[in-house]
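User: Good morning. I'm curious how 6-chloroguanine would be positioned relative to this chain. Could you predict the structure with it bound?
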Amino acid sequence: MRIDIFTLFPEMFRGPFDSSIVKRATDQGIADIRIHNIRDYSHDKHHSADDYSYGGGAGMVMKPEPVFEAMETIRSQSSEMAGKKTSTILLTPQGRLFCQPVAATLKDYDWLLLICGHYEGVDERIREHLVDDEISIGDYVLTGGELAAMVVVDAVVRLLPGALGSPESLLNESHTGGLLEYPQYTRPEIFRGWAVPDVLLSGNHAEIAKWRLQQSLKRTAERRPELMDGKREE
Ligand code: 6GU
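Assistant: Good morning! Here's the predicted structure, ligand included:
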């Protein structure tokens, strides 16, 4: 998967993409992530990327020209991606809510172009004429779309074939089947007097699976009741 990120703060991406699963995926060639500074595509004296809002009011708006030029430059330099399944996504608090099914849909794309919105907003013509999709990662306001882009990239890249050591680890994790994950234990069997549940030591795989499903249902019902609709142990 090729991922191009357009941002006013490219330095923010160094740490998160240089560690853990995303780093391994890029090292292995599973993901090709490229960061572009929108300001490099602004040609006035100060390389400005924002301007006042028509109609007045507080807050600056991201100008269309540098964003369009950055996007068009990268697209025209990427003829190898012509005809590939592509989505251009704006990260904005006004976008549709990101969740595991959205991540699972995005993993099937060959090329994601992510625009990190900033300041008080972006010129509406970016939305109308450059972008296919708008995503928010939750109902709170971040300074910019950069952290949201990192969240989306992390959640999508770990779903790519080969990104995780063992693909089975995707099967039982929280949100995959629409439920939260069951409690997990590792050694020691007794830690400070607190014992691992007997069933997990029983070797009875059917009983263990049943216990885990019960625990997932209980935990989801208690913590995230809105996820429960229609989910009951048969
Ligand atoms: Cl994508 N951007 C900003 N600025 N704030 C957010 C967000 C995105 N998602 C949640 N809050």
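The pocket of 6-chloroguanine is lined by residues 91-93, 95, 117, 136-138, 140-142, 144-145, 148 (CB under 6 Å). Residues 205-223 form the longest helix (19 residues).
Let me know if you'd like a different ligand tried.
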